Amino acid sequence: MPAAMYRTGVLSLGILVLLVECLTSSGCGNGRPKLVKVTGKVTLDGKPLEGAAIVFQPKASGEKAGFQRPSTGVTDAQGQFVVRTYEPGDGLPYGEYLVGVQKREVVGQSKVDPGDEASSSVNITYKWVVPKSYADPLGSTLTSNVTSSGMNPSEFALTTGGKPAQIEIVGPKARFNDP
User: If you write DSSP's letter for every residue of 78-138 in order, what string do you get?
Assistant: First the structure.
């Protein structure tokens, strides 16, 4: 066997061994947990809620506390959402979740984009379309469980309790008046 063919064969065998090793160990994987594609629906006082952000915070403790990346979705005109963790529509890992739903709107005309850095020097008034008590996954009472058969519950029926929308002012004036 010529030396060049021998070196090519050894190099090919080495690449094959490295590839098999990478595929069988966790070192070459993407390190991501297995995801379940899920969809759901959000209603407010019995009507589909459009434009709400929904957040799934893993409810893990002890040994399962390693993966804590939240997953998110946004509702469409029918109140439907598709959950993403890394990429649009990829789903979320198995497990129990604390769930938060948030929708608030700017009241009146704002001269700045709320996401712009200049917004920190201007007061912005928001109306909470969804009661603020649902916004934080750690503070809301919403939960969900994801298994290989999907998400349960997959529909979140929120209520305002007949209360008017809460108004919140965010900005330097609001901070000045804070205790």
Answer: TSEEE-BSSSTT--EESEEEEEEEE-EEE-S--SS-TTSGGGGGS-EEEEESS-GGGT-TT
pTM higher than the cut 0.90: no
Three-state SS for 134? helix
The Cα–Cα gap between 3 and 116 comes to 65
Please tell me what DSSP assigns to residue 162.
Answer: T
Count of alpha carbons within 13 angstroms of residue 59, beta-carbon side: 18
What pLDDT score was predicted for residue 143? 97
Q: How many CA atoms lie within 13 A of 124 on its CB side?
A: 19
Q: What one-letter code names the amino acid at 113?
A: D
pLDDT means over runs of 10, the chain (179 residues): 54 46 48 91 97 92 68 97 95 94 86 63 87 94 94 96 88 59
